[in-house]
Amino acid sequence: MSRSQIPGSDVLGPRALEAATACGVDVAALAGDARHDSPVNGATLGPIGWVAPADVDTAVERARAAFLEWRRVPAPARGAVVKRFGELLTEHKADLAALVSLEVGKITSEAAGEVQEMIDICDFALGLSRQLYGRTSVSERPGHRLMETWHPLGVVGVISAFNFPVAVWSWNTAIALVCGDTVVWKPSEQAPLCARAAAALLDRALAEQGAPAYVSQVVVGGPDVGEALVDHPGVALVSATGSTRMGRAVGPRVANRFGRSLLELGGNNAAIVAPSADLDLALRGIVFAAAGTAGQRCTTMRRVIAHRSVADELTKRLAEAYVRLPIGNPMAEGTLVGPLVHGKAYDVMAAAIEQASAEGGTVVAGGERVLADAAPDAYYVQPTIMTMPGQTDIVRTETFAPLLYLVTYDDFDEAIALNNDVPQGLSSSLFTRDQAEAELYVSAEGSDCGIVNVNIGTSGAEIGGAFGGEKETGGGRESGSDAWRSYMRRATNTINYSGELPLAQGVDFSV
Ligand code: NAD
To answer: Is 280 exposed, middle or buried (0-12, 13-18, 19+ CB in 10 A)?
Structure first.
């Protein structure tokens, strides 16, 4: 199949159902006729089986009951479930990746990479299941000991975005499960089949290991189903990934009922290219981060801040590289840029190009829709580069598409100021061979983002690090490092073995 040959629904629909069935989804049991279009060709993929917001109640009650049992299972035994889940993901990697491509349009290697990330987090969580450490500390009172113990929170509600339709859930779920929580997942309405497939694999792992029923559940539906999860008092933690608009709605609602939230929201990620940068390296890093996943990663590079001395050369070489990018059927070999997720995403990109032009920008590469004859209901676009006179309003806005803005700087402090002068704070990078610049960039006076890279692009994080960002990105941290603490509650324990009752701070309350 060539890149410009966009497969028809007679191919995609059966492939989707076959892949879902192979992962254990009972597709015959799925009902409902909600729209569910593949970005690959715009055609409806198959049945979905949406739930109503009221069904969230039942799911949370079941999850709550399951939690009471699950928390008693020793953490390493919970880790064994996650280990088995990782094995099943490995076995079904191709099927799950195919569903990711079909439902959200990722090219095959990136879709497989998404599943690999799920496998990686299972490995991480398995190790973590034996490392949920608490501290001990010395007491000011004789015969006393202070220690911290960590306990599971309860039910974790996971809301996920279309662009990482299964990996983000698995980051949350693998960690939440070893911590002793149960999970109710509201996946993106764009990706119900891959959600059901991933959940079916986990169900199998849970059943094989004798876990209680309803430790993991998926509630497929629209934002109203997400809202029901957000408002449910039985949900201890809402981990929500998506747009800043969504986070602005979710955060206050969860806070209002004193629940916890973990927000992973939009980004507006920049790379600074310094005069000393290795331009070959920068070029490769920028093209992958800006055009990869058709610009639809939260960590997609949206801004390049280039030193005036290298800006022309960099722009020229980037424009040449962009022209060579193979755009088309994401499941065809050699494609590097697949479709936008839907027509609305295309409209938003077209409007952003128009606004950027009005704000003084110039398109230097791309900007056009392609393959419209082969796929009139799908939206393939040329990744686009625009030079801008500065960080105008549109440059400071996240446009979820392959649209890269180039601005210039003269001194490094100015570059850092530009890097930080956006409402979002997810990812950032610097290309330089100047060690002092690199150190300054990762220091407190440098980038204000949650992810700060040197000589590597803004996207493609590994699961071992804590993932997330500041400001309008929401402040949450998921995945590796000590992100597990968000899924647990901490108790401080004082144990008195002295036989006396001395009070802290020397207080005397003798009776
Ligand atoms: P979206 O905000 O439209 O939807 C995300 C999820 O939230 C969906 O499941 C949706 O049904 C649900 N939702 C929407 N409104 C809701 C509400 N009021 N209450 C409860 N749930 C609600 O985002 P999208 O278009 O699917 O994804 C793209 C966005 O996600 C981009 O802004 C991207 O940067 C962001 N994103 C961030 C990260 C991160 O880790 N920071 C990762 C992936 C995507």
So the answer is: exposed
Written as tens digits, the pLDDT of the chain (511 aa) is 567 788 888 888 888 889 999 999 998 888 665 567 899 999 887 767 888 999 999 999 999 999 999 999 999 999 999 999 999 999 999 999 999 999 999 999 999 999 999 999 999 999 999 999 999 999 999 999 999 999 999 999 999 999 999 999 999 999 999 999 999 999 999 999 999 999 999 999 999 999 999 999 999 999 999 999 999 999 999 999 999 999 999 999 999 999 999 999 999 999 999 999 999 999 999 999 999 999 999 999 999 999 999 999 999 999 999 999 999 999 999 999 999 999 999 999 999 999 999 999 999 999 999 999 999 999 999 999 999 999 999 999 999 999 999 999 999 999 999 999 999 999 999 999 999 999 999 999 999 999 999 999 999 899 999 999 999 999 999 999 999 999 999 999 999 999 999 999 999 999 8
CA of 167 to the centre of ligand 1 (A): 14
Nearest CA to ligand 1 atom 35: 242
Place of tokens 């290298």: 310
122 is annotated as an active-site residue? no
For residue 341, the ligand 1 atom closest to its alpha carbon is 25
Domain annotation for the chain: domains and CATH numbers: 3-265+474-490 (3.40.605.10), 269-462 (3.40.309.10)
Residues with CB under 6 A from ligand 1: 159-164, 168, 186, 188-189, 222-223, 226-227, 230, 241-243, 246, 249-250, 264-267, 298, 398, 400, 426, 473
Q: Give residue 240 CA to ligand 1 midpoint distance, Å.
A: 7
**Is-catalytic flag, 264?**
yes
Residue with tokens 């569903």: 99
| Cα 141 to middle of ligand 1, angstroms | 50
Residues 214/63, Cβ–Cβ less than 8 Å: yes
User: Could you please report the per-residue DSSP string of 221-256?
Assistant: --HHHHHHHHH-TTEEEEEEES-HHHHHHHHHHHHH
